[in-house]
Amino acid sequence: MRNYGNLLPARVVLAVACLAATPSCTMISAQEKTEPLVPTVSSTLQTSDKTIANEKLQTALEKSLSGQATRWQNPQSGVSGSVTPLKTWKTSEGTYCRSYTESIVLASGKSLNREGVACRTGNAVWKSA
Q1: Could you give the C-alpha distances from 1 to 7, 64, 90, 95, 123, in angstroms and in order?
Q2: Residue (of 124, 122, 93, 126) closest to 1 by Cα position
Q3: CA gyration radius, the chain
């Protein structure tokens, strides 16, 4: 198992924050991810939303400075989002990792928010740690 310092364990928690008018929120799941990082809320996001979200997440982790948000919008579905890398470090094995936050706003106004840690593979793809 890799050492990620004092960051959250290698699990990503995906929570749905309800509209301000709604008194409750629903926790979707806590799950280990090995695929490219896209929220697994298949019934909520269209394929095009997931594609755009993943592309922007990969771009943000590869090119953005820590604290710099990368924003996106899908005009077809009305879904939008942002990814903000928080911290970058190199593991004892020489792998670069980054912590980040991701927010996706559905056309209904509900928000999907998560924090995660991803590490860069040898072929420049960021995967959840």
Answers
A1: 14, 27, 15, 13, 21
A2: 93
A3: 15
- Domain extents for the chain? 12-128
Q: Which long-range contacts (CB under 8 A, 24 or more apart) does 51-54 make?
A: 53/81, 53/102, 53/104
| DSSP codes of every residue in 27-86 | EEEEE---SBS----TTTS-HHHHHHHHHHHHHHHHHPPTT--EEEEETTTTEEEEEEEE
Global confidence as pTM: 0.68
Per-residue pLDDT tens digits for 23-69? 333 333 333 343 444 544 546 789 999 999 999 999 999 999 999 99
The total number of residues shown for the chain amounts to 129
Closest-CA residue to 125 (of 28, 9, 15, 34): 34
